[in-house]
């Protein structure tokens, strides 16, 4: 069995630690965001579940994300909120915000750092849709808000090479 202690001598988290507990993650640097991006890959949502609150400088998506941390168990999804704080503007390409009939599939989430702490959070969707969220700093959270449920397709998403 691999050693799971980190540099401080404490034990690192494992997927098994989150088996039946909701995820609550916070990213403040690009490395943290990679973890959130991996967990959000293949999440689906209606375009109507994407909101930007200009007055509170917050952008959020209500996702139906695949539970990658579930391992080899039955294919499951869980509703999660992916949110960015300190948002100054949002722009999209190839996406009609507010359209409940358009289902989006999230491929990746990336951070493009700017000159100082600011940067752009880029969400790329299947079908060439992109949302760019300009932020004063990287402040992204992922929080499960429901219990896991069986994926309607019953299958694990696949990505052919």
UniProtKB/TrEMBL annotation:
Protein name: DUF2948 domain-containing protein
Domain of life (superkingdom): Bacteria
Entry-linked InterPro entries: DUF2948
Pfam family, one: DUF2948
């Amino acid at each position: 069995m691999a050693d799971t202690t980190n540099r401080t001598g404490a034990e690192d988290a494992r997927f098994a630690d989150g088996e039946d507990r909701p995820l609550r993650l916070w990213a403040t640097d690009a490395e943290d965001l990679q973890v959130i991006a991996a967990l959000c890959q293949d999440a689906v949502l209606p375009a109507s579940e994407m909101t930007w609150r200009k007055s509170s400088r917050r952008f959020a998506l209500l996702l139906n994300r695949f539970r990658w941390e579930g391992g080899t168990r039955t294919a499951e999804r869980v509703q999660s909120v992916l949110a960015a704080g300190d948002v100054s503007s949002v722009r999209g390409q190839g996406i009609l915000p507010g359209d409940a009939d358009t289902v989006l599939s999230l491929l990746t989430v990336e951070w493009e750092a700017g000159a100082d702490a600011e940067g752009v959070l880029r969400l790329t969707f299947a079908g060439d849709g992109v949302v760019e969220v300009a932020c004063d700093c990287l402040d992204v959270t992922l929080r499960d808000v429901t219990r896991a449920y069986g994926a309607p397709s019953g299958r694990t998403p696949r990505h052919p090479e």
